[in-house]
Amino acid sequence: MTKAGLLTTIIQSLEADLALFFAAAKAAHEAATHEECAPDNKYDTTALEASYIAQGQANRAQEIRVALEGYRNLVLQSFGDESPIRLTALVTLEDEEGNQRRLFLGPYAGGMKIPVDDGEIVVITPGSPLGRSLLGRQVGDELEAGDYGLAATFTVVRIV
User: Fold this and answer.
1) What is the 3-state secondary structure (H, E, C) of 15-40?
2) Torsion of CA 56, 61, 62, 64, to 10 degrees
3) Are the CB atoms for 57 and 75 separated by under 8 Å?
4) Nearest to 105 by CA among 6, 17, 1
5) What pLDDT is recorded for position 152?
6) What phi, psi does 24 have (nearest 5°)?
7) Across the beta sheet with 142-145, what order do the strands follow?
8) Shortest CA distance to 101 belongs to which of 146, 157, 143, 149?
9) Phi/psi at 135 (nearest 5 deg)?
10) Which residues on neighbouring strands pair with residue 158, listed in sequence order?
11) How many CA atoms lie within 13 A of 140 on its CB side?
12) Rounded CA separation 62/69 (Å)
């Protein structure tokens, strides 16, 4: 998958997420204001709980809107073997056993997994621990990544 194709896939995924969260926020708002949610007594918090859900859904929808706008305005950079890793790099890491992971360094939507023919590409952000440790690295550089005592050593084998 090309980086332009990857960017298109990320945008489409965010658009689908936005539609989902917008619909969920609308449904939660309608539930919070429905006459059946009117409190029967001072201990009935059904409407209050529904309003909290509606606000949470609306907040998540706003976060997705920001990410979507960021990706729509993103300018993809080209990288070579001597280029340091920075935003929009598509990085291939290899562990000590030869297993490879592909990561896209994007501004938002860290953790999003994009399925491709030969596996997946995971979006990471510069704010994540792995993203921070990748910044400035080049092909051939090694880094340790992982948590909970399960750190592994990876080698940067490709930057696109």
Assistant:
1) HHHHHHHHHHHHHHHHHHHCHHHCCC
2) 130
3) no
4) 6
5) 84
6) -65, -40
7) 113-116, 119-124, 100-105, 90-95, 152-159, 142-145
8) 157
9) -55, 130
10) 92
11) 4
12) 11
Q: Look up residue 97 and give its DSSP letter.
A: T
Token pair for 80 = 């070579």
pLDDT at position 55: 82
Q: Rounded to two decimals, what is the model's pTM? A: 0.84
What is the predicted pLDDT for the residue at 22? 80
**Of residues 30, 114, 28, 20, the one with CA closest to residue 61:** 20
Residues of the chain with pLDDT below 70 are: 32, 34, 36-39, 42-44, 147-150
Name the residue type at position 104: F
Helix (H) or strand (E) holding 157: strand 152-159
Q: State the Cα–Cα distance between residues 67 and 20, nearest whole angstrom.
A: 15
Helix (H) or strand (E) holding 60: helix 46-72
Crossing angle (nearest 10°) for helices 3-33 and 46-72: 160
Give strand pairing partners of 151. none
- With a CB cutoff of 8 Å and minimum separation 6, the contacts of 117 are 1
| CB of 28 closer than 8 Å to CB of 54 | yes
How many Å apart are CA 114 and CA 10, to the nearest integer? 8
